[in-house]
Structure formats: structure tokens, C-alpha cells
Request: fold
Amino acid sequence: MSDDQRQVGYDGIWLPEGEDPRHQDEQAVGELATYRDYLSHYRLTLELKCQDLGPEDLAKQSVPPSDMSLLGLVRHMARVEHSWFQRVLQENLELPRLDEDDPTGGFHKVEPSQESVDEAFASWREQIAGAEEWLDSIDDSVLGDMRDLRGDQTTVRDILVHMVEEYARHAGHADLLRETIDGRTGQ
Reply:
């Protein structure tokens, strides 16, 4: 793709000024509220990077031998949300993992079909809704509570920070994946 064919958004930003749903007028107050704001921001970023693409583009693999794709990222993040929020934070480790038969964490065997896209986004949104429901039930006082990771101990706080980190890393992947599809870049 030549530079003159490149779609770079709106003057170097992803959406027109004032239309980015990630921007808020008020800053979060409190530790838990801050984690939730960051999670919301990165979840929206992943969704925006997938916006206006069809199944073929969403399933397009990045650089061989990697099988990473935007659709794979959505599937992976559904699995991550489920594992940390449903299994670990709610202490239900007996729940089977999503896509337990996929050792790549959701990236393998991504089908470029509308059915696959619908299924992946429905699963991801369902996991986010479950996570948000749990987050609605807690406050800052539980952030230091310990959770068992099959013998290792960590705090609720550490897990929430890890979730922000996981989304931030994959939002960067999504930026690059989207750029390889149609050249669109931006925040």
C-alpha cells in the first residue's frame, strides 16, 4: 500500500475530535475506579480496532508463523476475562477454561465467517458483562484480598493490574494488525 492510499484516520487520530468514546470529562476517583476506567478504555480500544471490518479482515493473520489476528485477539480476551474474573477472582477454579482445547489461547483455527465473528464477540461481551457484574459487587477494601493460583497467592489488586496490562499489550497488537489490513493508524 502506498503512502497516498493510506488511511490514517482523522488527522492522525482514530476518530474525529469529540467522538472517541474512551475520552471522559471526569477522572476516576479511587483505586478500583481507576482500574475499571483503564479496563474500559482498553476494551473499547480493541473494539474500535475491529470496527468496520468483515470476517476475512478480522481473521487475517499477522506475520507468519504467527496466527494472531484481530478476531483471535477478541477470542483470546474472552478467555482471559473468563479465566481471571470467573475462575480466579470469584474463586471458581473448577470451571473449565473457555476453548480449553486450544493451546494458543484463542488464536488457533480462527474461521473467517460471520458466524465465527458473532460467536467471538458474543463470548467476549458476555465475559465482560460477568466481570463488570463482579466488579460492581466489590469496593476498594477487597483489593488487598488474596486469591489462590493453584498454590501461589496474589491479590485482587495484582490481578486487576494484570488485566490492564494484558489489554494494553494486546491493544498494541491490534494497532499493528489493523494497520496491516487497511493502513489505518491512530490512538
In short: Strands lie at 146-149, 152-155. Residues 156-182 form the longest helix (27 residues). The chain has one domain: 29-182.
